[in-house]
Amino acid sequence: MTSRNLSIFNKLRPISVGFDDVFNHFESLFNDDYFTLSSTVGTNYPPYNIVRSDENKYDIEIALAGFNRDDIDVSVEDSVLTIETKSINESSHDESNEVIHRGISKRYFKKLFTLASDVEVHSAELKDGLLRISMERIIPENKKRKTIDVS
Asked: Looking at residue 150, what DSSP letter applies?
């Protein structure tokens, strides 16, 4: 972890309460070790979009041409969404045919997305080569705006 003396969050720590886990998490993201956990974590493969479909609804869309449901694993643990391949079977084509050029990449990958503590993953659907993971930010009643009558 980055030394607290060098932390970019030092100016926020004295005026905030209960955000230590958030600050520590982001400090670990800025640490180079995070991006070298796997050689594929920091890459652009496979390509993806993060889409906001409503004020509190989000979708992550990942292009997975050539993959099927059995090839990928989607999990959430400790506010980290992980999408990775289980096993790769390169021989998805008819074995009587010879592949002359392999332009559709079907290789191992692991994508990590940090989720806010109030974001819930609702579903994951693989359709037409696009994996769509739907999420929603759930705002508890005690955090919603309310008007207080002054008496």
From this structure: P
SS3 assignment, position 102: coil
- Provide the CA 98 distance to its chain's centre, in angstroms: 36
User: What digits encode the pLDDT tens for the residues 106-119?
Assistant: 888 999 998 988 89
Q: Where are the domains positioned within the chain? A: 9-38, 42-90+104-144
Provide the CATH number for the domain formed by 42-90+104-144 in this structure: 2.60.40.790
Predicted TM-score (pTM) above 0.70: no
> For residues 64 and 129, is the Cβ–Cβ distance under 8 A?
yes
Half-sphere exposure of 99 (CA within 13 A, CB side): 11
For the four alpha carbons of 44, 133, 57 and 9, in that order, the dihedral sign comes to negative
Q: Are 69 and 126 in contact (CB under 8 A)?
A: yes
